[in-house]
Design brief:
The complex is a heterodimer. Chain A is an all-beta fold. Chain A is built from no helices and eleven strands. In chain B, the strands form two sheets. In chain B, strands 2, 4, 5, 9, 10 and 11 form a six-stranded mixed sheet that branches. In chain B, strands 1-3-8-7-6 form a five-stranded antiparallel sheet, with no helix packed on it. The radius of gyration of chain B is 14 Å and the shape is globular. At the A-B interface, β4, β5, β9 and β10 of A face β4, β5 and β9 of B.
């Protein structure tokens, strides 16, 4: 069966510090991978998605970046965090299809920038 | 603008009652999906309805889709305290080349009181 892992679960970082969040998927090959951010009590904002190794699409201009160094690994990074980067970060995967069907989400990372 | 808009934004009911949540969207879609999010957790896929379907059932869930009105409803029958969560609708936009993204609504908070 497929599983998706995210770590860390919680993170408190000072403004201006770097960030690296990791997401890995097991039990599937060639998944589409996604990073979302959810502000408190709000909906999901798609940040990045990837349809293959090294292929990253950015949805929102910001000081975050994403990379996919391996088929089932997706990394969200920042060189210098801003207060506005606080939120709940969710990684998700889906199978390949012409139109997107089910997405499967990881447990999320709660980031607080102080 | 947000593709999916859930209505109402918050709903509080007693255990055993039915809960109905509505979702409206703006563009043509290939499918519409509903997800549940327990507090502080990732989203869980509940049910998917394709654009050529009008109604679908899964256990205590019933989803309807009216593409002429660009709206969907999710009915949870005989609610339980464990159904307390936020519920999101998400649409897969119908574009010529297909779509690798879902567009999520802002979510609706359901509270089921024991």
């Amino acid at each position: 069966s497929q599983t998706i892992h995210q770590w860390p679960a919680t993170l408190v970082q000072p403004v201006g510090s770097p960030l690296s969040l990791e997401c890995t998927v097991e039990g599937t090959s060639n998944p589409n991978l996604y990073w979302y951010r959810q502000a408190a009590g709000r909906g999901l904002q798609l940040l990045f998605y990837s349809v293959g190794i090294g292929q990253i699409s950015s949805e929102v201009p910001q000081n975050l970046s994403a990379s996919r160094p391996q088929d089932r690994q997706f990394i969200l990074s920042s060189k210098k965090l801003l207060l506005s980067d606080s939120g709940f970060y969710l990684c998700a995967w889906s199978g390949r299809a012409r139109f997107l069907y089910e997405q499967y989400f990881g447990p999320g990372t709660r980031l607080t920038v102080t | 603008s947000q593709q999916g808009e859930e209505d109402p934004q918050a709903l509080s009911i007693q255990e055993g009652e039915n809960a109905t949540m509505n979702c409206s969207y703006k563009t043509s879609i290939n499918n519409l999906q509903w997800y549940r999010q327990n507090s502080g957790r990732g989203l869980v896929h509940l049910i998917l309805i394709r654009s050529n379907e009008r109604e679908k059932h899964s256990g205590r869930l019933r989803v309807t889709l009216d593409t002429s009105k660009k709206s969907s409803s999710l009915l949870i029958t005989a609610s339980r305290a464990a159904d307390t969560a936020s519920y999101f609708c998400a649409t897969a936009p119908l574009t010529q080349g297909g779509s690798e993204k879902l567009v999520f609504g802002k979510g609706m908070k359901l509270t089921v009181n024991p």
